[in-house]
From TrEMBL:
Signal sequence, renumbered to the chain: none
Entry keywords, A to Z: Membrane, Transmembrane, Transmembrane helix
SUPFAM superfamilies registered for this protein in UniProt: MFS general substrate transporter
Cellular compartments per GO CC: basolateral plasma membrane
Lineage top rank: taxon: Eukaryota
Name of the protein this chain belongs to: Monocarboxylate transporter 10
Length: 119
């Protein structure tokens, strides 16, 4: 959850980097958190679907991730054409991971409530 949240935060910080060293630092942190996210994806898929379907679940996740990675750059280009800057594209790219991270924070709470209702 933290890595997903920080990926969104680092995406939104890219337009704020006015020095090359700052951009390098943001990219390093973004790469670190992206690596953590990718590494934890397989164990989570294994836990959710079991050993029999884990390869299919990982393939499905990567397939879903390919959609915004394919559509995002042309949309960013359109935003740049209309607004004259890429800043809005980076801010908008950071919003879904922030929302997703915030929603994922509630999963333990919901899971605990379900356990209490079952008792």
């Amino acid at each position: 959850v933290a890595s997903f949240f920080f990926i969104g935060l680092m995406s939104m910080m890219i337009p704020l980097c006015h020095v090359f060293g700052g951009l390098i630092a943001v990219c390093l942190f973004m790469g670190l958190f992206d690596g953590c996210f990718i590494c934890i994806m397989a164990p989570i898929a294994f836990e959710l679907v079991g050993a029999q379907d884990v390869s299919q679940a990982i393939g499905f996740l990567l397939g879903l991730m390919s959609i915004p990675m394919t559509v995002g750059p042309p949309v960013a280009g359109l935003l740049r054409d209309h607004l004259g800057t890429y800043d809005v594209a980076f801010y908008l790219a950071g919003v879904p991971p922030l929302i997703g991270g915030a929603i994922l924070c509630f999963i333990p709470w919901v899971h605990e409530r379900q356990k209490l209702k079952e008792r």
